[in-house]
Amino acid sequence: MNNSPARLILIGGGTCSGKTTIAKAIGKRIFDLKSVIISHDNYYKDLGHLSPEDANRVNFDHPDSIDVDYLMQDVKLMLKGKAVNVPQYDFITHRRSEGTLCIANADVVILEGIFALYYPELITLSDLKIFVDTDADIRLARRIQRDTVERGFDVESVLLQYLETVKPSHQAFIDPSKKNADVIIPGDREFDKALYMLNAYLQYSLKTQ
After folding, report:
1. 21 CA to centre of own chain
2. Whole-model pTM?
């Protein structure tokens, strides 16, 4: 059993930049350590009290759309080795429900999301901050595929949302958070060397704490 505080890795970047892919790749490379991967997408505010029309008008690409207090509560518990119920968020109904039990006593907690490097509260707790920097055209193409295939939206609505909220919010909040990163990884090219270096850092850091 690990009695030392877990290390927190933050992975930020624009929509569909490859954050989840890189988070999973890091988790696989530190196979001898117990790691937990969570997304702050699970902590969007529950909008069940709003009508579908009003909920659809909410800007989900603004930092205020995340329930930061709830997120910070769970992150702090995980860093102390506690198990938490990570909520599930339904992007169709915009409702949040109880999710799955996250394992306790992790050595590494990996949190990914577009605002992972935005909130000062998370920055203060983190041990390593990564920004995934991916070309905007590639991110848009990936988002169209994801939202049409996985979430049932039509291409026109995806493009409209991108132009009205996603792109402006990226420029206002997400891209500037790059300055908080310790490491910037290209999400549209080979990143194995960067992951190898990160793995070496984690192994050394955890063994010397």
Report:
1. 11
2. 0.88
Give the C-alpha separation, 60 to 143, whole Å: 14
Please identify which residue in the block is written with the tokens 């908080």.
Answer: 180
131's enclosing H/E stretch is strand 128-133
Residue from 90, 73, 91 nearest 82 by CA:
73
What whole-number distance in Å separates Cα of residue 74 and Cα of residue 125? 13
If DSSP codes are grouped into helix, strand and coil, which group holds residue 109?
A: strand
The region, left, alpha or beta by phi > 0 then psi within -120 to 50, assigned to residue 98 is beta
Q: Which amino acid is at 75?
A: V
Question: Collapsing DSSP states into helix, strand and coil, what is residue 209?
Answer: coil
Contacting residues for 176 by C-beta, under 8 A, at least 6 apart: none
Distance CA 112, CA 38 (A): 6
pLDDT digits (tens, 9 = 90+) for 80-132: 999 999 999 998 888 999 887 787 889 899 999 999 999 999 999 998 999 99
CA 117, chain centre distance (Å): 9
Beta strands in the chain (DSSP E): 7-13, 35-39, 85-90, 95-101, 108-112, 128-133, 183-186
Angstrom distance (rounded) from CA 61 to CA 47 = 15
Q: Which domains does the chain have, with CATH numbers?
A: 7-207 (3.40.50.300)
